[in-house]
Amino acid sequence: MQGEEDFASFYAAHHAGIWAYLARLGASSAVASDLAQETFVRWLERDASEFRGSARAYLYRIALHQFIDHVRRSRREIAWDDEMAVTAPASDAPDEVIPRSVWARLTMRQRQLLWLAYAEGFSHDEIAAMTRLAPDSIRVLLSRARARCQALMEEHGDA
How many helices and strands in the chain, by DSSP H and E? Predict the structure, then answer.
């Protein structure tokens, strides 16, 4: 029974974050819920020792792969949920909101990196392990994503 209790608390601690991550990548509310559930199923099926790092980072990597698989299967544009707001990673103000029109114009990679770094607080090394990119590449790509976000915010008239 101890294993079930451990999983229940792991699930409770991380489900909302996984759901939010999937939603910010572009999944609708319903799809994010389904993919979040599938992420935890996959996490239980796999050997976490194959990921060198935290269980949380491994969970986010599984979620990313679930989302990519979903997009490939659906071959259609993922709808944005109108109820969502996005916290701006491009500024020091943690409560600043990026308009959906700006967030939608970022590439999936830019949204992914900005969300993992600023909303979830993962280190560059953890993001590199999840995305299988070099840590130095993460630094460069995050810098470019912040600059693109800032430029879009200025163009939108919100910066």
Answer: 7, 2
Look up the CATH architecture of domain 86-159. Orthogonal Bundle (1.10)
Which sign does the torsion angle of CA 69, 70, 74, 75 carry? negative
pLDDT given at position 95: 42
User: Is the pLDDT score of 84 beyond 60?
Assistant: no
Query: What are the sequence ranges of the domains in the chain?
Result: 1-78, 86-159
Is residue 131 classed as helix, strand or coil in its secondary structure? helix
SS3 content of the chain, % helix, strand, coil (to 5): 70, 5, 25
1-78: in CATH 1.10.10: no
Encode pLDDT of 29-57 as tens digits: 999 999 999 999 998 888 666 666 688 88
Q: Write the single-letter amino acid at 128.
A: A
Instruction: Tell me if 34 sits within 8 A of 137, measured CB to CB.
Output: no
